[in-house]
Amino acid sequence: MTTAATRGDRRISPVFLGIAAVTAVAGWAVWTGFADATGFAVFLFVTGAWIVSLCLHEYAHARTALHSGDLSVGAKGYLTLNPLKYTHALLSIVLPVLFVIMGGIGLPGGAVYIERGRIHGRWKHSLISAAGPLTNVAFAFLCTAPFWLDALDGVPRAFQYALAFLAMLQVTAAILNSLPIPGLDGYGVIEPWLSYRIRRQVEPIAPFGLIAVFALLWIPEVNIVFFDAIHALLRGLGVEEFQRYCGYDLYRFWRGLFDEQDPGCAVG
Where are the transmembrane segments (predicted)? Predict the structure, then answer.
């Protein structure tokens, strides 16, 4: 029988600490202008912070499951924040980072494997699924705090732009992952309240939910409506569209090797 997580099972992984350290150093380089290549520093900072948020997203699922009755999550390494310990590192970490690079979309990743049979009570099951997106919501509020608190005095423009782009990733991840589509956390929230017959019918298509979301976002009309909603929400949090755009422009530092980056986003 699986027992409670040991201290070793909860020890923060050196892999996660390394990622967090790179993120912190890159953030310092963006803030101080220490790096000659500001775009590369922004890339490291945003990518590192995005991976940290993905790890915390999965950790939130696991931690909530632990307190709800699934004591197996510790032995699986889910409480160490190690991205390599999650059920599918490709879906959980690599693909979300690739989607950020390709289109500036905070696509939700894979998941931890929760032994649902150990957990009793529909509310507990719903809370476990909701814990991940709520982590992204918390990150979004943290990233946008300087904007809606009107506390940008003294904050370098490059750092403002990086935070604005990172906030957009967190908002898109929170919204996409909250959709009631099989395979996403939003469906996990409502699944315990559905009939057994419906759950059995939906189960075979659950692995394709993320692919379906990605395909829908390629439809121009859907894409426009989705990003209009994202922009409206971020404007409500004090983040202007040009700040998010310039953050993404700086993030794609490699464009400067082939094309001229937008001069309106110059920070030097």
Answer: 12-31, 37-56, 89-114, 126-149, 161-184, 204-227
